[in-house]
Each structure stands twice: as structure tokens, then as C-alpha cells.
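Q: what sequence does this backbone want?
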């Protein structure tokens, strides 16, 4: 059966909770729990379900039907959640039905000996108690009622545990889907994809600086899906339709056969607080979106594309950012390797200059050419800005917050970014003093972050340093502090450190 772990009712309920959570609350949860928010949610749901089951067990001692008070609402919730998932069919409710029947059978098997025992003790009249010695000499091989109850309870419990283990193993077999795709991905050779080479001038030497290239394993991940899609390239296709002259349907092979474009692009998340980690720089290879859109023939009145992922996630991207000279692409590879599954294998979108939530659709399967006035997308429905141009920002990597430097002439460094505009200058200010210029690196395009290093004189003791950048339009990074909601944080990153005697 083509059942995947995504069909689990617990996951469905968790996804329902996520869907019903208002944007600002979800944002708070993500900022408190980091990106383990979904695992925590699943754990909470499992814990609640266990508590409800314990309660159902106690109810069962009272009347055979009482646990239904717990099972029926739980199953209905699971069923509703499962059927509300993106692309759900009647089949998705099946695990819930199976679960419901399993609970009923398990509980009645487990409690049946208890009921029998209770029935036995309650029919034990004083008269029969009096004749107990006689009874004992009769069916003497039969254990006493409490003993038999315990044994039978244990045997049945054991049988159910064994059945659960068997089911668990079956579940793991279901997880094979992802392992298969992982295997396909590992064997995939993409001609036209070149290995990343750090461009000359992109790096400034400073220990503990974030590396120019973020390895895929360290690259931040944002997924609303708890279990991400595992798609075989042969099963993937993308439809470009809507306000176009000709609908275009592309297979993975179609993309591989085309001329690939490659480039360094820094991707960042709108939820990244000032100085935060939700940013990474990678070498991407893919097919230019501008070419595909030209082939489809975009109508002049269109101003957006609505992208849909295999997992149902959506985002709206301004056409203006796709048709100009920037390297907006359907990416097939990251850092010279096929995209990792978690970063969108087999195909994801990438648009330099826009936050990921309005552009970087992973596992993209549908692109509708349309108008912003015609739709709302996943995050815009939750209160985030409709357009998401990246805001000019900068970060201090060295020293780390609360870290140490040797007193004297100290080197401070980090990154600054204003994708597709470019960084003109970076300045630092020590202990609230004047802004002093930093040296900046010169990467080949404006689509990446820019490393910077400043040399400052620090006396022994505690200090605070802050940074600001200026973009190539002459805009100076604002010191006004704004929250990430609705369209990205602003403010200056500052770091406290101690200068020690060297
Ligand atoms: N299908 C899908 N695509 C998605 C997302 C998502 O949750 N689901 N998150 C978006 C957001 S908010 C960001 S910042 C980037 C992050 O990409 P990464 O996980 O590869 O770093 O992916 C975008 N694409
Ligand atoms: Mo994001």
C-alpha cells in the first residue's frame, strides 16, 4: 500500500494545530522552541493521547462502553485532521479507522479478565466461601481467581505489546519511501553541475568567522510539514499555467537536459532576528525561471506566481523579481550535489533578494502565473507581508556574544547582506563611540553575503560592539529595532565581550 508516515493521525493532528495557530503565536513558538517546535508539538500530542488512554483504561473498569467517550472524539479529531491535509483522500482516514478498531480490541482484550474476575468475586456468596475447601479439592488445578486474572492479563498485555512491535516494524517498512529516495539521490549524477569553488576576493581571513559556503548539513531549515515529501525524480513534474499563452509541463529529465545556470546565493528567513542564524550561503545549480516563463508566454496583466509545494505549502512571488537579470532558478543542486531531501529534493525555487517565505518553494510542483489580488499564500494568510524583499542587515560573528578577545588591536568580523543590491560599506562602533569603517570582501555578485573585518583598539575589560552596513543604493542600515513580524527584523546587532590581557 502506498501509505507513508505522513498519513499518521498524530502528524495530521499536529499539522492541523499548526494550520490553526495564528501567525504571531506560531512565530513566538518558533522563536522559543527554535526549529524543534514541531517535534515538541508531536510529543505533546502523544503525551496528551497517553493520558487520555490511561483515563480510558480506568473508565473501562466501570463499564465496557465508557472508553468510547475517549476513543470516539479522539478518532473524530484524528479523522478530521487527516482529511484536511493537503490532497487528502478517503484513504487518509483509513489509519484512523484502523487505530480506533485496534484500541477497542486491545482494551477489551486487556480488561476482559478483570471484568470476569470482578464478576466472579461479586457472585462469590458467603455460602460458596464457606465451601471453599471443598471447591479447592475439586478443580484443584485451577489457580485462584486473582492469580488467574493476573496471568491472563499479563499474557494478553504481552500479546498486544508483541503486536505493537510488529506494527512498528511495519511502520518502519513504510519509512522506506524516504530511504529509497535518499538512495536515488545518492546515485544521481548531474552533468552540468559543477563543484563549488570559493570565488577570489570573497573571503577575509579571520578565525571563527562563518564560512563563506554554508555546508548543507549546517544550512538552516524551515518546514511547515512535519514529515517532508520524499519524491522520486521520475515521479516529479512541474506545471506552469495560469495567465500564460502556453501551459508548460516539465519533468526532472527536461530540467536536467537544459542548460544549467549556477551561482552563489545567500538565502535567509524573514524570521531571523537581528544577529540570528537563519541565513546561509550556497552554490546553487538549476534552470533559469525567466527562460521558462518566457517560453510559457506570461500575460502582461500578471504580476505574481503562486508556487505550490508537494506538501501543500504555498508562496506568492513577484514576477518582477523573476523576469529581470537575477539568477532566479529552479534549483536542482546545492553546493555541487543534488539538493538534500530536506532542502527540497528534487527541485526547489530560489530567488536572490527575497526572503525564503515568498520565494524559495521546496518540492515545488506547481507554478500558477497570476495576480497578487487573486490569492493569499501560506504565510501571508498568517499575517506576514505579501512581498518579502530582504532587508539590509549585518551580523557580528567574532567575537561571539559573551566571548573574549585579547586587549590591544583586536579583529572583529562577520557578514553583511543586501541581496541583489549589494553591500557598499560596513562600520562598527565600540562602546557607543563613533562609527569606524571595516574592511569588506568583494564577492563576484551582489546576491550573497559579504564578509567584513574591523580592527579596533580595545582596552582590558568589558565592551560592547555593534555593526551597521550601507548598501549600494546608499541606504544606511537603520538602528530602529523592529520584530521579525510582519516583514523582517531591523536594528543593529551588538555583542558584549571581554578583552583580556594578552
Ligand atoms: N514546501 C516548503 N517550502 C518552503 C518552506 C516550507 O515550510 N515548505 N519554508 C520556506 C521558508 S520560510 C524559508 S526561509 C526557506 C528555507 O529554506 P531551507 O529550509 O532550505 O533553508 O524555504 C521556504 N520554502
Ligand atoms: Mo522563512
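A:
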Amino acid at each position: 500500500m502506498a501509505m507513508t508516515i505522513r498519513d499518521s493521525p498524530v502528524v495530521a493532528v499536529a499539522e492541523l494545530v499548526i494550520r490553526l495557530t495564528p501567525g504571531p503565536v506560531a512565530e513566538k513558538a518558533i522563536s522559543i522552541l527554535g526549529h524543534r517546535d514541531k517535534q515538541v508539538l508531536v510529543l505533546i500530542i502523544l503525551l496528551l493521547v497517553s493520558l487520555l488512554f490511561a483515563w480510558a483504561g480506568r473508565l473501562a473498569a466501570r463499564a465496557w462502553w465508557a472508553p468510547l467517550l475517549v476513543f470516539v472524539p479522539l478518532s473524530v479529531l484524528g479523522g478530521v485532521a487527516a482529511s484536511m491535509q493537503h490532497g487528502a483522500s478517503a484513504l487518509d482516514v483509513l489509519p484512523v479507522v484502523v487505530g480506533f478498531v485496534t484500541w477497542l480490541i486491545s482494551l477489551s482484550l486487556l480488561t476482559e479478565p478483570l471484568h470476569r474476575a470482578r464478576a466472579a468475586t461479586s457472585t462469590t456468596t458467603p455460602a460458596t466461601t464457606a465451601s471453599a475447601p471443598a471447591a479447592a479439592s475439586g478443580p484443584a488445578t485451577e489457580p485462584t481467581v486473582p492469580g488467574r486474572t493476573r496471568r491472563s492479563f499479563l499474557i494478553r498485555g504481552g500479546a498486544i505489546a508483541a503486536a505493537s512491535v510488529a506494527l512498528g516494524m511495519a511502520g518502519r517498512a513504510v519509512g522506506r519511501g524516504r530511504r529509497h529516495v535518499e538512495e536515488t539521490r545518492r546515485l544521481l549524477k548531474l552533468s552540468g553541475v559543477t563543484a563549488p569553488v570559493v570565488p577570489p576576493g570573497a573571503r577575509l581571513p579571520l578565525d571563527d568567522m562563518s564560512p563563506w559556503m554554508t555546508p548543507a548539513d549546517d544550512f538552516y531549515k524551515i518546514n511547515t510539514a512535519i514529515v517532508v515529501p520524499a519524491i522520486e525524480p521520475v515521479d516529479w513534474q512541474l506545471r506552469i499555467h495560469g495567465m500564460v499563452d502556453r501551459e508548460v509541463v516539465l519533468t526532472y529529465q527536461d530540467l536536467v537536459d537544459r542548460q544549467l545556470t549556477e551561482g552563489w546565493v545567500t538565502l535567509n528567513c524573514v524570521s531571523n532576528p537581528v544577529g540570528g542564524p537563519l541565513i546561509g550561503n550556497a552554490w546553487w545549480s538549476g534552470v533559469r525561471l525567466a527562460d521558462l516563463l518566457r517560453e510559457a508566454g506570461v500575460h502582461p496583466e500578471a504580476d505574481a506566481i503562486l508556487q505550490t509545494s508537494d506538501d501543500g505549502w504555498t508562496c506568492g512571488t513577484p514576477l518582477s523579481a523573476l523576469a529581470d537579470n537575477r539568477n532566479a532558478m529552479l534549483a536542482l543542486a546545492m553546493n555541487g550535489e543534488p539538493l538534500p531531501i530536506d532542502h527540497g529534493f528534487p527541485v526547489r525555487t530560489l530567488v536572490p533578494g527575497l526572503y525564503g517565505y515568498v520565494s524559495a518553494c521546496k518540492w515545488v510542483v506547481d507554478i500558477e502565473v497570476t495576480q497578487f489580488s487573486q490569492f493569499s499564500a501560506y504565510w501571508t494568510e498568517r499575517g506576514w507581508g505579501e512581498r518579502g524583499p530582504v532587508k539590509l542587515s549585518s551580523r557580528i560573528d567574532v567575537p561571539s556574544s559573551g566571548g573574549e578577545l585579547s586587549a590591544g588591536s583586536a579583529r572583529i568580523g562577520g557578514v553583511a547582506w543586501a541581496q541583489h543590491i549589494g553591500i557598499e560599506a560596513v562600520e562598527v562602533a565600540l562602546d557607543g563611540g563613533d562609527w569606524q569603517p571595516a574592511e569588506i570582501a568583494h564577492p563576484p555578485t551582489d546576491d550573497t553575503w559579504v564578509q567584513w573585518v574591523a580592527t579596533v583598539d580595545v582596552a582590558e575589560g568589558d565592551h560592547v560592539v555593534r555593526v551597521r552596513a550601507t548598501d549600494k543604493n546608499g541606504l544606511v542600515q537603520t538602528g530602529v529595532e523592529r520584530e521579525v513580524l510582519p516583514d523582517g527584523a531591523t536594528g543593529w546587532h551588538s555583542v558584549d565581550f571581554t578583552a583580556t590581557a594578552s
